[in-house]
Structures are given as structure tokens and as C-alpha cells.
Design a protein that fits this description.
The radius of gyration is 17 Å and the shape is globular. The longest helix has 17 residues. It has a 7-stranded parallel beta sheet, with helices on both faces. Strand 2, helix 4 and strand 3 form a beta-alpha-beta unit. It has one domain: Metal-dependent hydrolases (TIM Barrel, Alpha-Beta Barrel), CATH 3.20.20. With 247 residues, it is of the alpha/beta class. Bound molecules: zinc ion. Zinc ion binds next to loops.
Length: 247
């Protein structure tokens, strides 16, 4: 839970979530230490009526320095819902692209081995990520998180039966391309997220993001699509349950 590094207490996160009726959280862990810490929070979330789910995987930023021993993911397989976030980031290129691709392939193979959906971080590399995953067949359950790619790749993702998740970026004024993508693909294959602690939505830009602020992504999208926010929330919640095989 990266939010821990921002000194935000789980109690505050839970209080905010309850205030906004956000009752499902999916946390991503990039190493064993993060995952084990995140797992200790299950009880306090659950006792407040909030489901806390977990994903684990090697982020492309870490590809160069990460160990290729993935025992920690295998050992926690029963406690995680998905492999993620994994993929490619050719925007920041914090790790050499060759290393990113190697680790990404290992993560795809792990998702097949453990029979888990895979959550993709594909910044400025969405199409390349799609092509690599397709080398492994079309049967994988794939979610492109925090989507900022183009329309063509978005349509390919949806047509393949995969999902796209939009973050607070959707609420930014300059995000007209992503507004068009959302309007075009509709709501049957989408999720919303905060990507906290990053990317706080309007009206919190520049501040630390917290999970409950996903409310503002829903609020924005419901106005953009002219759909009642409760109907939108119900559909997206069903999409989540179906994709991750929960409930
Ligand atoms: Zn990401």
C-alpha cells in the first residue's frame, strides 16, 4: 500500500470510504513486504463492511532491479485476486524496455499458472502490451488500468473481451480524448479507480489521492454519459465481480 508512505492512516481511508459508500477496494502490492502489510489490514476494512482485495506483481518501473524469484506471489496465491499491476511503461522508461518486456512475460506466464486475471499498466505502450498478451492466446482475463492510450487500442481491448479502467485523469479538462473513448466503448466493460496515492481527481488535483475519491470519477462519468450515478455504480460493481470472479 503506497498510501502508507504518504502517512495516511487506514482509519482515515476507511472513514472516507464509508462516507462515500465505496465498499470494495483493490490494493496493488509490488513486493512481499507491501503485500504482507496490506494483508494485515483486511480485518479492519472487513469489520467496517468494506471488502479489501489484493493484487501482486512486478511493476514495469521495477523491472530492472526486481528479483526474478516470484515465490512470494505463488505463496500468497490464495490471498490475491489478480496479478498486477504489471506491464510496460515507455513514457517514463524507468527500466530498460528489454527488461520490462522480460518481466512482463514472466508475469503473464504467472497469471496463466495461477489462473488469475492480470492487471496491466501500459503507459505509452498499450498496443505493445496488447500484442504481447495475444501471443499467449485470447483466453486471459485482462484489465488495462488507468487507461491513457488511444481509441484504436481501446476498441481492440474491448473487442477482445478485456476491460478498461479509468482513473481520476478522466476528470481533467484536457482529457477530451478519454471522454470520447468512454462514450464510445460504453459501460459494460469498464471499471473506475483512483490509482491512489497518485492522480487525485478534480477538485483535489495536486493533493494526495485516497481510495474514496473514486466517487468523483463516478460523479464525472455519470454526468458525461448522462446516466444516474447509482445505475452506473451498479453496472461497474457488477463488471468488477464478474471480471474477478467474486461473490
Ligand atoms: Zn499503473
Amino acid at each position: 500500500m503506497l498510501i502508507k508512505e504518504r502517512d495516511i492512516s487506514p482509519d482515515l481511508i476507511i472513514t472516507e470510504l464509508k462516507e462515500k459508500s465505496v465498499l470494495t477496494v483493490l490494493n496493488m502490492s509490488g513486493n512481499d513486504k507491501e503485500l504482507q502489510h496490506a494483508l494485515t489490514l483486511n480485518e479492519s476494512f472487513e469489520s467496517n463492511g468494506i471488502k479489501l482485495f489484493h493484487a501482486a506483481g512486478i511493476h514495469p518501473h521495477e523491472a530492472e532491479k526486481a528479483s526474478d524469484d516470484y515465490t512470494w506471489i505463488r505463496n500468497s496465491s490464495s490471498k490475491i485476486l489478480a496479478i498486477g499491476e504489471v506491464g510496460l511503461d515507455f513514457h517514463y522508461d524507468f527500466s530498460p524496455e528489454k527488461d520490462q518486456e522480460k518481466v512482463f512475460r514472466s508475469m503473464i506466464e504467472l497469471s496463466i499458472e495461477l489462473e488469475k486475471p492480470i492487471i496491466i499498466h501500459g503507459r505509452s505502450a498499450e498496443k505493445r502490451a496488447v500484442d504481447i498478451i495475444k501471443e499467449y492466446g485470447n483466453d486471459l482475463n485482462v484489465l488495462f488500468h488507468c487507461y491513457t492510450g488511444d481509441m484504436e487500442t481501446a476498441l481492440e481491448i474491448i473487442e477482445t473481451g478485456w476491460l478498461i479502467s479509468f482513473s481520476g485523469i478522466l476528470t481533467f479538462k484536457k482529457s477530451t480524448d478519454f471522454h470520447e473513448i468512454l462514450k464510445t466503448i460504453g459501460i459494460s466493460k469498464i471499471l473506475f479507480e483512483t490509482d491512489s496515492p497518485f492522480l487525485a481527481p478534480v477538485p483535489f488535483r495536486g493533493k494526495v489521492n485516497t481510495p474514496a475519491k473514486v466517487f468523483h470519477v463516478y460523479d464525472f462519468a455519470s454526468k458525461l454519459l448522462e446516466i444516474d450515478i447509482n445505475d452506473l455504480a451498479k453496472t461497474v460493481s457488477d463488471n468488477f465481480d464478474k471480471f474477478f470472479g467474486v461473490k
